[in-house]
């Protein structure tokens, strides 16, 4: 199957915990479909490295920055050409709330909720969400390999909580068609065969909940 052929999705979101490869996959999909790409832009957050170093004291400014960033990104998304064949993003709005509940204390969360309500965010609904899963050990290996500023301070316990929060969220998620991918068993970066297998699965997923659990490629 050639790249992009047969795609019927107008708005695809790739989600998953830190280190799972969502931005890399989103870039690859946008290239395949020749589409508009909307990235989370975590590197723009000046508080994120401080959060990795001191989560307790830096959680609130980190989340508030992300919240206002999301508001701007959603506005940009709504202003993109509606006749573009497809749009791809490496985050969904609900992710911001997920992390707020995970990192903020009750008083901070109330302040966050007030700002969230004031902004009256109304993100377009994706017509496909790709949820990438991987064990904590795999995530730690990938985070170490990419050596981004501050990420070496991410603890195993924090990663475990993030993984569990994502799993709980998507266990109940039914707002869009959902493709759950075992990202530990596939290499869409260096093996074109793996990427084409995943791309075919994406193009075939149009409703409901589906699982893609490929066996690790033998070399």
Automatic annotation (TrEMBL):
InterPro entries (alphabetical): DCK/DGK, Deoxyribonucleoside_kinase, DNK_dom, P-loop_NTPase
A GO CC annotation given for this chain: cytoplasm
All residue ranges annotated as the Deoxynucleoside kinase domain in the record: 12-202
UniProt-annotated binding residues for ATP: 16-24, 142-146
Gene Ontology MF, one: deoxynucleoside kinase activity
Pfam families per UniProt: dNK
Keywords: ATP-binding, Kinase, Nucleotide-binding, Transferase
SUPFAM superfamilies: P-loop containing nucleoside triphosphate hydrolases
Catalytic machinery residues: 90 (proton acceptor)
Record's protein name: Deoxyadenosine/deoxycytidine kinase
Origin species: Thiohalomonas denitrificans
Record lineage: Bacteria, Pseudomonadati, Pseudomonadota, Gammaproteobacteria, Thiohalomonadales
């Amino acid at each position: 199957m050639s790249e992009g052929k047969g795609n019927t999705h107008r708005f695809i979101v790739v989600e998953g915990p830190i280190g799972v490869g969502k931005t890399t996959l989103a870039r690859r999909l946008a290239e395949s479909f020749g589409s508009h790409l909307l990235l989370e832009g975590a590197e723009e957050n000046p508080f994120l490295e401080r959060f990795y170093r001191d989560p307790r004291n830096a959680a609130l400014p980190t989340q508030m920055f992300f919240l206002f960033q999301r508001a701007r990104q959603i506005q940009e998304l709504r202003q993109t050409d509606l006749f573009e064949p497809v749009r791809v993003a490496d985050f969904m709005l609900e992710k911001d709330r997920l992390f707020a509940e995970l990192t903020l204390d009750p008083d901070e969360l109330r302040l966050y909720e007030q700002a969230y309500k004031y902004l009256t965010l109304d993100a377009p609904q994706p017509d496909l969400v790709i949820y990438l899963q991987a064990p904590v050990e795999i995530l730690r290996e990938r985070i170490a390999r990419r050596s981004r500023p501050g990420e070496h301070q991410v603890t195993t316990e924090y990663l475990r909580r993030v993984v569990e929060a994502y799993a709980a969220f998507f266990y109940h998620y039914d707002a869009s068609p959902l493709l759950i991918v075992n990202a530990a068993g596939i290499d869409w970066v260096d093996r074109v065969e793996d990427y084409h297998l995943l791309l075919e699965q994406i193009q075939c997923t149009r409703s409901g909940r589906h699982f893609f659990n490929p066996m690790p490629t033998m070399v």
